Amino acid sequence: MIIEALIGFTFLAALVVMLAPDEYAGRLAFGLSLLPVVGSLYMWSQFDATGNALLEGGSLAFETQVPWLTAAGYQIQWFVGVDGISLPLIVLATVLSSLAILSAWTPIDSRQSQFFGLMLFMEANLLGVFTALDFFLWFVFWEAVLVPMYFLIAIWGGPRRKYAAIKFFVYTNIASLIMFIGFMALVFNLDVNTFGLPAVAVALRSGGLSGAFGLSPTALKTAAFAAMFLGFAVKVPVVPFHTWLPDAHVEAPTPASVMLAGVLLKMGTYALLRFNFTMLPDVATQYAGVIAIFAVVSVIYGALLALAQQDLKRIVAYSSVSSMGYVILGLVAYTQLGVGGATFQMVAHGLISGLMFMAVGVIYNVTHTRMVGDMSGMADRMPVTVGILVAGAFGYMGLPLMAGFAAEYFIFQGAFASSVIPVAPLFTAVAMFGIVIVAGYLLLAMQRTLFGPFRLETDYEVTRAELHDTLPLMVLLLCTIALGVAPDIFFTMIKEAVTPILAIGGGA
Amino acid sequence: MVPAEWYLILAAAVFCIGVFGLLTRQNALLFLMSVELMLNAANINLAAFSYYWGNVTGQTFGLFVMALAAAEVAVGIGIILVLYRNFSAVDVTDATTMRW
Amino acid sequence: MVVYPDWAALAPALALAVTGLVLLLIDSVDPDDSRPGLLAGTAVVGTLVSLGYAGWFLASGTGQVDGGTGAISLYRDALVVDGMALFFQAVFAVVTALVCIASYDYLKERAYQAEFYSLVMFAATGMAVMATANSLATAFIALELASLPSYALVAFLKHNRGSVEASLKYFLIGALSSAVFAFGISLVYAATGSLLLADVASALSALDGGLTGVAAIGVLMVAGGFAFKTASVPFHFWAPEAYEGAPAPISAFLSSASKAAGFAVLFRVFTTAFPLDAAGVDWMLLFQVLAVVTMTLGNFAAATQETVKRMLAYSSIGHAGYALIGLAAWSGGAPGSVENGAVLGASMAHLLVYGFMNTGAFLFVALAEQWDVGRTFEDYAGLGSRAPMASVAMTVFMFSLAGVPPFGGFFSKLFLFAGAVDAGFWWLAAVGVVNSTLSLYYYSRVVKALWVDDPVGEFELGGTPTGLYVAVVFAAVGTLLLLPGFAPVIETAQSVAAALVP
C-alpha cells in the first residue's frame, strides 16, 4: 500500500498547493514534498525484492495488483511494485523533486501556487511511471508527466518558451504514439490475456509470438523493437532525435530543467531497459552494433555540440545528451556491469545534472545572464555556489569518489567485456574519448566564467546566494559523493535486478 | 391494375422533382414546398405498397408522415418569419454571416 | 414483489415528457418568467428522475439479457426497452441535466424561459424514444420529435442574426434529410412490406431478386437520414453553422445528446433490421468510408478554425467519425455473441464519455459568452488566471477530447480502436489514431490560450454564473472519474450491445 499512499499523497499535495495562496505555495510545497522523500527512504529500508520485476524468479516489493477493466480480451490492472531497478529511480525522483521545489523559491515570482502544484503533480506521475507494472497504467502516468512539463516550460520559461514547449510536447507525444503502436502490435500477437508487463515479458522471451500484418514473428519483433526504440530514443534523447532538448532546457525555468534532465530523461532509458532490452533481448543483441553506434554518436556528438556553446545551460543540456549515450552503451553491452552501470548512471547523472542546472540557475538568479562571455570571476562573489559548481563539473568529468566515476567505470568495463557488441573495445575506446571532450569544455567554461578577475556589468551589487538556494546544491553534492564512495548502496540491488535480463542476452 | 413498379417510378419522379427544386430555388418557401414534394413521394410509395402487401402499416405511417410534414412546415414557417425579420428577405443565400 | 406494467419500462422517457408538460403548466400559471430558479429546478429534477430510472433499470437488469427480464417489447413491438436503450437514455439524461443547470444563468435575463426548458425536454423525450424505437415508423417519428424542438431552440435568440441563420440552415438540411429518410423508409417498406425491424430483417433475408435494388436504395437513404442526426458526412454541413450560431447550451445539447440519439437508432436499425448479407448493400463498407471521411474532414476543418465554438463544432463531426467505427468494424458475428458487442459497445461508451467532455467544453464556451470575452482563440488568452476553476475544467475537456491518457477520452478511444483492430480493421484504427494525434494540435491551442498566452487587453469578468460553473465542474469531474470508473461503463455497454441482436 505504500506506493499507493505515496502517489496519492503527492497528488493530494499538488491539489492543496494549487489552491494555496501564492505567498506560501513554495514553502508549503517543499514541506509537503518531504513526505514522499521520507516515504521513498522508508521503502528503501524495507526493500526486500529479489531478481527482476518482469522476469521469472523475481519477486516484487510493495506489490499491489487489482483488476481494473478488460479491453478486447486483455486484462488491464492497477499493478505496481518495485524492484532493484526502480527503487533507486524512485528515491532519485522524490529527492530531486523536493530539492527542485526548494530551488524554485527564488526564481519563480509569479503564479507560484500553480507552479509548485504542477511540480508536485509531475512528481506524483513520475512515481507512477517508475512503479507501474501494467502497460496501460504505466502509459497513463508516462503521458501525464508531459502535461505539467508543457505548462512549466510554456508559462514560466524564457523568451521562446511557447515554441520550446510545443516542440517538446509534439516531439514526445508523437514518439509515445509510435512506441504505443509498437507495443500494441506485440501484445496483440502474443499469447497473453493481460497488459501486465511481467506476463508480456515472460511470454516474449519464451518466444510465444505469432506473425501478423504479413510479417514473420522475427520481423514483427524487429519492427516493434524499432518502433519502441524510436519512441524512447526521443525521450532519452539519442542523437539524432535530440533537437527538442536544448530548446526545452534553455527556455525552461531552472527547476523544470532540473526535473527534465534529472528525472524525465531517465524515463526514456528506464523504459528502454524495461521494454526493449528486457523483453526483446534477441533483437537487441542482434542489432547491438547499430545501437552501439547510436550510443557512441550521442556521446561524441553531444559532447562536441556542448563544446560549441556559449550558454551555460545549453552546455549542460548537450552534455546530458552525451551522458545518456553512455547509458545506452551500457545497456546494449548486455553484461552485468554494463547494464547495471547504465542503471547506476541514470541515478548518478540525475544527481549531477540536477546539481549543475541548479548551480547555473543560482548564478543566473544573481547575474541574469548565462552567457560564458558576459561574466568572469564569479568565484570572487559567490564562493560557495561556485565551489559546488566546480565540484559538480568534476563529477561530470568522472572524478573518482564521485557517483559519475563509478557509473562510467562500470559502463566502460561492462562495454569493454561485451560479447554482444561487435568490436566492443573499439566502441568503448571511442566513447571514453567523450570524457576528454567533456573535461575540455567544462574546464574551459569554468575557467572563463568562474575564475579570473570579477567582471559583470550590472547596476547592483552581486552578493552571495541565499541559504535556501545553496542548500539543495549541498545536499546533491553530498549524495553524489556518497554514491561515489559507496556505490554498493544502490549497485547491489541493481546488479540483483539486472542479472536475470542477461540470461538470453548472451554475455555474462 | 397498375403494376407496382409504376408507383415506384412515379414516386421516384416526384422525389426527383423535389430534389431539383431544392437545388435550384433560393426562396426558402419554395424550398419548403420542394421538401413537401419529397415527403409526398414517400407517401405515394407507402400507400401503393400498403395495397400491394395487403397490410395497413404503410397507410398508417403515411398519415404520420403527413402530420409530421405539417409540424415541420409550422416550425419552418416560424423560422422563415424570423429570418425575414432579421434579414428582410426569405432568400436562403442571403443569410451568410457565417461561412457556409 | 410488486409487478409493474410493461409500459413502466418507458419511465426514463416518460419522466422527460411529463417534465416538459409540467413546465408548460407552470408557465401558464405564472407566465412572466419571474421564477427562473423554479423552471430550471423543475427541468433538472425531471432529468435527474429520468437518469435515476435509467440507472436503476440498468442496475436491476430491466430489459437486459444477463440476469434480467430480457428485452421488453411494447405496443406490438413498435418500441423495445433493452440495455442499449437504457444506456443511451442515461446519456441523454446526463447531458440534458447539465444543459439545464447551465441554462439557468444563460437565460436569466431573457424571455420565454419556460418554453426553452420545455422544448429541451420534448427534444430529450424524442431522443429517449429514438433509443427505444424498434420500428422504422417510430424511429422516424421520434427523430422528428427530437428535431423539431431543436430547430426552434437554435433560433432561440431570435434577434441574433447568427442564431436565426444557424436555425435556418439546420432546418433546411434537417427537412431535406428527413424527406430522404422518409423516402428511404418507404422504399424499404416497398421491398419488405413491414416497418418493424425484426420483420424487415426476415423479409430482407427472404427477398426475391426483383426488389433487392429497391431495398438497397432504401437502406442507403435511411443511412442518409441518420447521417444528418449524427452530423456525419454527407449531411454534416449544418453542424458547424448550427453549433456556432445556436446559444451555447443548445450547441452542447445538440452536439452531445442529439448526436448520441442519432447513433442509438442508427446502431439498432442497422444491426437488427438490415442483415449484412441480405440488405443488398454492403453497409459496413459504406460506414467504413463514411467513418474515415467524416473523421478526417472534421479534424482537418477543425484545425483551420479561428473561433473556439466553430472548432468544437468541427471536432464534433470528427467524433461522429470515431463513433461510426462502431458500425464500420462491427463483427456481424453469430447473434448474441460477445464479439458483436465489443466495438459497438466501445462506440457507445465513447458517446457517453463524449457526452461529458463535449457538453462541458460547449458550456465553457457558454461561460465565455456570458463574460463577453470574445469568440476566437486569442480572446481566451489569460482566462486561466482569472477563472482558474473553469479553465482547469476546460483543460480537462480538451485533453480528454484529444484522447490524451490521464482522462476519460483516452480509454473510450482506446477501446474503440482496439476493437477495430481486433475485428481486423487495423487501417481504420490507424486512420483514427492519426486523426487523434492531429486533433491534439487544435485542442491544445485552447489550452495554450487559457494558460500560456498573455491577455490582449485588460478585461473584467462580469459576475460568476453559479449554474454554469456547477455544470462545467460537474462535467469535468465526470470526465475525470470516467478514467478509473471506465470498467463498469464499458462492461455494461459491451454486454448490452452484444444483446442487441438476439
Automatic annotation (TrEMBL), chain A:
GO terms for cellular component: membrane. The chain crosses the membrane at residues 85-108, 139-156, 168-189, 222-244, 256-275, 287-309, 315-334, 346-366, 386-411, 423-444, 471-491. GO terms for molecular function: NADH dehydrogenase (ubiquinone) activity; NADH dehydrogenase activity; ubiquinone binding. The keyword Translocase does not apply. It is a multi-pass membrane protein. Residues 132-426 form the NADH:quinone oxidoreductase/Mrp antiporter transmembrane domain. The keyword Membrane applies. It is found in: Membrane. Keywords: Membrane, Transmembrane, Transmembrane helix. Belongs to the complex I subunit 4 family. This is Proton-translocating NADH-quinone oxidoreductase subunit M. The lineage of its organism: Archaea, Methanobacteriati, Methanobacteriota, Stenosarchaea group, Halobacteria.
From TrEMBL, chain B:
The chain crosses the membrane at residues 6-23, 30-54, 60-84. The keyword Transmembrane helix applies. Keywords: Membrane, Transmembrane, Transmembrane helix, Transport. It is found in: Membrane. One of its GO terms (cellular component) is NADH dehydrogenase complex. The keyword Oxidoreductase does not apply. GO terms for biological process: ATP synthesis coupled electron transport. One of its GO terms (molecular function) is oxidoreductase activity, acting on NAD(P)H. InterPro entries: NADH_UbQ_OxRdtase_chain4L/K, NUOK/Mnh_C1-like. Pfam families: Oxidored_q2 (PF00420). It is a multi-pass membrane protein. PANTHER family: NADH-UBIQUINONE OXIDOREDUCTASE CHAIN 4L (PTHR11434:SF16), NADH-UBIQUINONE OXIDOREDUCTASE SUBUNIT ND4L (PTHR11434). NCBIfam families: PRK05715.1-2, PRK05715.1-5. Belongs to the complex I subunit 4L family. This is NADH dehydrogenase-like complex subunit K. The lineage of its organism: Archaea, Methanobacteriati, Methanobacteriota, Stenosarchaea group, Halobacteria.
TrEMBL record, chain C:
The chain crosses the membrane at residues 6-26, 38-59, 79-104, 116-133, 139-158, 170-191, 211-238, 250-271, 283-304, 311-330, 342-368, 389-412, 424-443, 468-487. Residues 133-439 form the NADH:quinone oxidoreductase/Mrp antiporter transmembrane domain. It is a multi-pass membrane protein. GO terms for cellular component: membrane. GO terms for biological process: ATP synthesis coupled electron transport. InterPro entries: NADH-Q_OxRdtase_suN/2, ND/Mrp_TM. One of its GO terms (molecular function) is NADH dehydrogenase (ubiquinone) activity. Keywords: Membrane, Transmembrane, Transmembrane helix, Ubiquinone. It is found in: Membrane. Pfam families: Proton_antipo_M. This is NADH dehydrogenase, subunit N (Ubiquinone). It comes from Candidatus Halobonum tyrrellensis G22.
